[in-house]
């Protein structure tokens, strides 16, 4: 008998479990399992959509209730009679979170960890008709009870939300975060099914290493089987349908079949920025009983940490190539995880790929992501940094907690270890910042794990002993990092070692984003700037039209960031003339965010040339609900201009300009400095593995007239060196373009200095492949009137934009289903900008730009 599966996805009901046997609480139909209680209550019109208006508030109380799910099902076809060798397992891939499972009235499982899967042999328990019931306790109330139970032995510190989340092994963001709502879910959030078999292959995986010269891959293949005593397993590996090796091997007494192998000149998996994604099919066949297969990849991954003139490096080397990691941080894509379809994961990862981002960091306050997410990353060549599921707290270490964590870690490492995209595991997110904030005991020189358990920061035992031990046992060639941020036990703000969460822009000192060049680190694994989503998304989350204005009650409620009003308005007002209608203010916040991305990615990627900065990951890629946040793409996969700023800054070959920075807001500074004599740098950065010849041109264009105020600078046949930064100009002096001012120390108005942009282009074979424009700062001092912007549709799939004067922040208003090749860009005189569009008729597009007469202009109105 071959292994078979019978899904238990339909025929479920749910209701509140008040602890009584009352029949007054009606059972509600459940559309499908996987599910979570909020979506079932929405489907049955028992609650309003918590993503709309203030509806989150009344549904928060659901977190204090208990729930029960049930279904009835017949004995599966072909179920053998008692005494035969066929086994029937009841499988729960995930239960959220405190669950008691009863089958035909008998308790068969208790679970308290959302991240665990469970398999129970129910062969002897099944009847002709069966009832399955799952009771879910309140995770919030159980968490509070656990805090009380263990507060004598552990102090539960927490930075985000309430402390009850800390002892609960559940996605921590369900308690709310500074970008998401408080929606503490419950339910069978992953598939439930029956599985029948006589013998089966539980898993097949490799333990192997690619040689430093990349000429061989050697190691072993292991298959774990059940019910196969005395049997053998056929293990095979194939590439593009061609068999690389195939061998029959015996199953030992531990249920393991194993073969050793050596592959000469293996095809390797690379991040898409550096090569192709070769994937092999690994298959294990147990006679006629079972076959499983998976797609795997071979690559040599190294984290290079070596002393240098700046401290200690932190960058990744894949297959011998140093790789600059440009990308994003990822949070769960929905507050209700069960309703995320596999295609949506693929759409998200494809968006990362199309944005030139080669790494995504799965944040520790969420989950160990779905197989579909990792499959897409494997296929598209996107590297993954996966945090273990701990975030912003001081976690306990009592025995039952650590036992649960160990099971969780082993299960998820085993599930994910065959994905070549998974490059690094980190122990937690910002938990060592909690240690610093609350002065918890930490002595890096103390290497005794047992003494850590007795300190006020016992979680060190989890991050520096338990998790790396488990990882080395389950995936011994994997890279491990104790936490993020982390640098050899030094202060987490130290920019000379490890990775850093750079929040001195937005949080902390609130540096101007123009100062990003001062704020580099060895690897920046978080930084960000908030922005509003596009108008369609704002309308989707706020139905009350009169509430759609900056600072309204509902707009403030949607933004969960602490002090968001002060921070958003500060960055907007420091840089732009403020307009408060919703269209204009949305546009301004989006341009602020895009500018922050532009300055940061350009400056920090430049440092790759000296390996001073090994990567930049923006906080954050996505949202779990429609909101205002640091996300560069909103909940509906609608991209903000910042997404395109990152995309352009991460081109395989990019050009950068930096102009001498002058403060304009602090004390008695001279705000005219940006318009006087100045200096600028010019460089080209490349991810390519070979040198390339390019032509570089620099123009100086009047913002007032659109005319070139001096001859361009040309650098022909510049050799751009591979995988580094090629510096072209450094501290090159240019003078102010005074008109009517004989002595530029005398200043009566900006117009007299005829301010200009510096615009650089890189050309290969007469094609512009990269450009950059540096504007005098701040932009609010400039006159943006009369830009003379012209837009015309070119057929059904292109739009051409031009202007007679330099134009800042041209943005098309994006909506769901619309795809643009570029957005949020500057328009330079003499250079028509062509944007490819799909998903919308060109005449239906709306747009705006800095200095536009309206915040939302219809193309059809021209």
Automatic annotation (TrEMBL):
GO terms for molecular function: beta-mannosidase activity. Its EC number is 3.2.1.25. Residues 200-299 form the Glycoside hydrolase family 2 immunoglobulin-like beta-sandwich domain. Residues 678-781 form the Mannosidase Ig/CBM-like domain. Residues 1-18 have a biased composition (Basic and acidic residues). The keyword Hydrolase applies. Residues 1-21 are annotated as: Disordered. One of its GO terms (biological process) is polysaccharide catabolic process. It comes from the Eukaryota. Pathway: Glycan metabolism; N-glycan degradation. Residues 12-190 form the Beta-mannosidase-like galactose-binding domain. Belongs to the glycosyl hydrolase 2 family. Beta-mannosidase B subfamily. This is Beta-mannosidase B. It comes from Rosellinia necatrix (White root-rot fungus).
């Amino acid at each position: 008998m071959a292994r078979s599966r019978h899904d238990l996805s339909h025929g479920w009901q749910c209701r509140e479990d008040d602890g009584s046997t009352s029949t007054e609480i009606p059972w509600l139909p459940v559309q499908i399992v996987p599910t979570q209680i909020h979506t079932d209550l929405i489907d049955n019109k028992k609650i309003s959509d918590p993503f709309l208006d203030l509806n989150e508030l009344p549904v928060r109380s659901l977190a204090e209730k208990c729930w029960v799910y049930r279904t009835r099902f017949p004995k599966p076809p072909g179920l053998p009679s008692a005494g035969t060798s066929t086994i029937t397992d009841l499988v729960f891939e995930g239960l959220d979170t405190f669950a008691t499972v009863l089958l035909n009235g008998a308790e068969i499982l208790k679970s308290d960890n959302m991240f665990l899967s469970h398999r129970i042999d129910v062969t002897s328990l099944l009847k002709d008709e069966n009832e399955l019931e799952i009771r879910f306790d309140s995770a919030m109330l159980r968490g509070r009870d656990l805090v009380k139970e263990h507060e004598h032995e552990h102090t539960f510190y927490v930075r985000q939300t309430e402390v009850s989340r800390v002892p609960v092994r559940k996605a921590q963001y369900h308690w709310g975060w500074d970008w998401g709502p408080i929606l503490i879910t419950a339910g069978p959030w992953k598939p439930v099914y029956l599985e029948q078999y006589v013998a089966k292959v539980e898993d097949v995986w490799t333990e192997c290493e690619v040689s430093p010269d990349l000429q061989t891959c050697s190691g072993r293949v292991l298959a774990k089987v059940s019910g196969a005593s005395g049997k053998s397993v056929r293990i095979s590996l194939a590439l593009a349908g061609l068999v690389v090796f195939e061998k029959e091997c015996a199953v030992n007494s531990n249920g393991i079949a194993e073969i050793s192998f050596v592959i000469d000149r293996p095809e390797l998996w690379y991040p898409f920025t550096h090569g192709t994604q070769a994937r092999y099919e690994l298959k294990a066949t147990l006679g006629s009983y079972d076959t499983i297969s998976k797609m795997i990849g071979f690559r040599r991954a190294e984290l290079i940490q070596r002393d240098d003139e700046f401290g200690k490096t932190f960058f990744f080397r894949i297959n011998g190539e140093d790789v600059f990691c440009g990308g994003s941080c990822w949070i769960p894509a929905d507050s209700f995880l069960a309703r995320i379809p596999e295609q949506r994961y693929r759409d998200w990862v494809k968006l990362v790929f199309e944005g030139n981002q080669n790494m995504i960091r799965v944040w520790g306050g969420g989950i160990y992501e779905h197989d579909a997410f990792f499959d897409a990353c494997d296929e598209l060549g996107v590297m993954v940094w996966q945090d273990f599921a701990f975030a912003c707290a001081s976690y306990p270490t009592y025995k039952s907690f650590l036992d649960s964590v160990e099971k969780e870690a082993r299960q998820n490492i085993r599930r994910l270890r065959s994905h070549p995209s998974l490059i690094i595991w980190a122990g937690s997110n910002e938990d060592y910042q909690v240690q610093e904030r609350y002065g918890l005991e930490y002595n890096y020189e103390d290497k005794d794990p047992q003494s850590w358990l007795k300190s006020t920061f016992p979680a060190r035992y989890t991050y520096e002993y338990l998790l790396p031990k488990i990882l080395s046992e389950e995936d011994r060639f994997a890279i491990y990092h104790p936490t993020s941020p982390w640098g050899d036990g030094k202060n987490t703000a130290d920019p000379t070692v490890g990775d850093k969460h750079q929040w001195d822009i937005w949080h902390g000192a609130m540096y101007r984003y123009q100062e990003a060049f001062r704020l580099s680190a060895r690897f920046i694994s978080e930084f960000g700037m908030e922005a509003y989503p596009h108008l369609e998304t704002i309308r989707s989350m706020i139905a009350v039209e009169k509430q759609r204005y900056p600072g309204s009650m509902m707009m403030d409620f949607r933004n969960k960031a602490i002090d968001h009003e002060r921070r958003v308005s500060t960055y907007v007002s420091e840089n732009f003339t403020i307009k408060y209608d919703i269209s204009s203010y949305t546009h301004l916040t989006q341009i602020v965010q895009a500018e922050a991305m532009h300055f940061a990615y350009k400056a920090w990627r430049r440092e790759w040339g000296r390996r001073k900065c090994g990567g930049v990951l923006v906080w954050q890629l996505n949202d779990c609900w429609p909101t205002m946040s640091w996300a560069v793409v909103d909940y509906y996969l609608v991209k903000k201009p910042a997404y395109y700023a990152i995309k352009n800054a991460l081109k395989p070959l990019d050009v950068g300009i930096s102009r001498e920075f002058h403060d304009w807001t602090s004390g008695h500074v001279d705000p005219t400095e940006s318009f006087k004599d100045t200096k600028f740098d010019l460089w080209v950065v490349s991810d390519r593995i070979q040198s390339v010849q390019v032509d570089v041109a620099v123009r100086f264009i009047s913002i007032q007239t659109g005319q070139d105020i001096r001859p361009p600078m040309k650098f022909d046949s510049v050799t751009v060196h591979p995988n580094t930064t090629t510096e072209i100009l450094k501290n090159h002096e240019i003078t102010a373009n005074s008109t009517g001012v004989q002595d530029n120390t005398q200043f009566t108005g900006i117009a007299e200095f005829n301010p200009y942009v510096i615009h650089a282009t890189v050309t290969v074979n007469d094609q512009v492949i990269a450009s950059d424009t540096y504007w005098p700062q701040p932009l609010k001092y400039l006159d943006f009137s009369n830009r003379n912007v012209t837009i015309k549709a070119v057929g059904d799939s292109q739009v051409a934009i031009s202007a007679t004067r330099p134009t800042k922040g041209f943005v098309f208003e994006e909506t769901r289903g619309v795809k643009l090749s570029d957005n949020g860009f500057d328009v330079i005189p003499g250079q028509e900008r062509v944007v490819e569009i799909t998903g919308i008729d060109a005449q239906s597009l709306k747009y705006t730009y800095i200095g536009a007469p309206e915040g939302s202009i219809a193309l059809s109105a021209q």
